[in-house]
Amino acid sequence: MHATRKLWTWLAVICALSFAVLGWVGAQIYLAAPPIPQHIISADGEALFGPGQVDRGQQAWLSAGGQQLGTVWGHGSYVAPDWSADWLHREALALRQIWARRDYGANFDDLNKATQAALNARLKEEMRRNSYDATRATIVLSADRAAAVREVAQHYIDLFGDARSLDKLREQYAMNANSVVDADDLRALPAFVFWSAWAAATDRPGATGLSYTSNWPHEPLIDNRPSAEAGIWSIASVILMIGAIAAMVMAHSAAKEEQDPAPPKADPLFNLKPTPSMLATRKYFFVVIALILAQVGMGVITAHYAVEGHSFFGFPLADVLPFVVSRTIHTQFAVLWIATAWLATGLYIAPAISGHEPRFQKLGVNLLFYALLFIVAGSTAMGWLGSLQHKGTAFAFWLGNQGLEFTSMGRVWQILLFVGLLFWVTLLGRALWPALRKPSDSRGLIVMVFLSALCIGGFYATSLTWGRHSHYSMIEYWRWWLVHLWVEGFFEVFATAVIALLFTRLGLIRAASANNAIVLETIVFLFGGILGTLHHLYFTGTPTFVIAIGAMFSALEVVPLSLIGIEAWRNYQRSKAAPWVGSYRWSILCFIAVGFWNTVGAGLLGFSINTPLALYYMQGLNMTAAHGHAALFGVYGMLGIGLLLFCLRGMSSRLAWSDALLRPMFWCLNIGLAMMVFISLVPAGVYQAWASISTGMWYARSPELIHSPFMETLVWLRVPGDVVFAIGTLFLALFAWRLLVARKQSSAAIADHA
Questions:
Q1: Which of 357, 549, 379 is nearest to 463 (CA)?
Q2: In terms of DSSP bridges, do strands 47-49 and 39-42 run parallel, antiparallel, or are they unpaired?
Q3: Residue 331 in contact with residue 405, Cβ under 8 Å?
Q4: Whole-number Cα distances in Å, 13 to 9, 85, 540
Q5: What dihedral do alpha carbons 231, 236, 238, 243 form, nearest 10°?
Q6: Residue 450 near residue 436, CB atoms below 8 Å
Q7: Predicted structure pTM score
Q8: pLDDT per residue over 250-281, tens digit each?
Q9: How open is the CA angle 537-543-544, to the nearest 5 degrees?
């Protein structure tokens, strides 16, 4: 008990200090973020962009799809370009060409090498000079550069408008004509894109050769290359990771690991009678399976748009289901079905743990279900409607699609979901209360379950921190609080504690050992995970020390994954501990798969892009997608399915249960995911990384490379893996259908007998 109290104290101290540092970093990001000018003018006084146009352009881009339609500073989707890299390259080429034609009467490519070198040196000096006047909030550009900016701005107006000359390019970008309909929004959109490229190219005040985005993206034309900090901290983070892994291996080897207890002779949960509120969670799990099917379907359509752009095997599907909508649903449903599975698991196990069914608990569970269903259906429908009918920026922010990856639902839906999560915590807490008050060997686990649930509910408030007019750097800062800390942090702590609690209830591990292990695991995970959030923010207009902190702590995130295979092996042994454990075989195998994908998806693929130097060249490329698919579904998805199967086992007839359907489900999902990641996404990411390093980020995301024969072949090579994966989801759906039919038949038989 003394050791456990010390661990809890360390956990509290580490969390308090880590969040204090993370909050301080946020304040520094706010102070050091690239300034937003109110006027962008030429040296001869001509206005290029006026007051509020950068802000309005940001809103216009987000309402047109935002991070579902290309990226800015590397965050978003991968078919359309990174707009900051695209603008930067187009502006540099345009300016260089203006000088070549005016001063030498020829195209730049026709000039001799010495003249080209002189113009390149002039270009670098011009593009990197910081001409922002803080007293007037004005950027002053030379007349020549202003002419280049006007040329590129017209290209963007034509692209996001309906110029027929760019139909082919829009198809390659998987974007529809008239992505921005309002004339004022369309004129303002180039102001935001220009500003994002300007911040990526111009030197910070008091610095030479270092832009606001730490020289991201790679653009040799203006000598945008990795900073010294990126290289130094990349090396330091690798050294730290190796040292920390060695220390953990030594500590694990020196520790005397307690053996698991002798398993009970019979299933301890066999005679557990589900309470009314536990039975009410059943429908949650069937909705989870429906959301999985919808998410996979949208994923197939979204992937296919990378080849055809507007069509699905010749059918003009983008007229009713644009890429920005299909990708939004695909990413949003991934988070929603995983979250729903975990929320339902909490509601199911709480009365089972405490032996207490609070008054009106079933009513609360049902109310929460229909509220969540309303939020999912409403946010999806409004996002779809807003995108198709171009309802405007206010509608997009409040009711439609905010244009932010994984956090796309409108603000009204976010508020409702936050209220729903607080209601869920209340339901969970009142059911767990007797167990929280009663001293027991497993009380520490129960406390961890409740505290992590409280953090899940409370930390969703970070989705409410940015507004329509927030600085883009601050939007990214808060968005990653939600995506990294909420999804990758507290949900994982919650799920890990729930799994440990389930194993203790089955008598397969000792409660006292599990208590210490879970608190220690949480300490190790959050020590790296909280400040590791900053690895997403290296190049989003943040101070350079963000690179140092993010690199070192994100390296520590990998450390606990180095020993996760040992835990997976022990779980496999537990699945064979006694004949009755076979009833939970596929749930336990899902937990083992979580260990595998944690090591491969979160660890191997995650760390391959996490160091500053690697991410500098690979941010916004398919290596990120490979890591995202392997980690999101492989870890959190398989965890959700494992919990789903465990809970359904306790609410279903043993005769209706079919391991014959679960076997192909499990193997198809995991084999299909591996095929998708390693046959298609990883090779595509490596190929793009080569292009980014050798030529520049603009080229790695250009239609010339994205739609090259090799890249399109890699997209088609996703098909075998996608098919195998989809078959796995169909087996899961068939399994659920069998349970539903059996329940209806059982109810009918009881009614006939009565």
A1: 379
A2: antiparallel
A3: yes
A4: 6, 42, 29
A5: 170
A6: yes
A7: 0.95
A8: 887 887 767 778 888 888 888 889 999 999 99
A9: 90
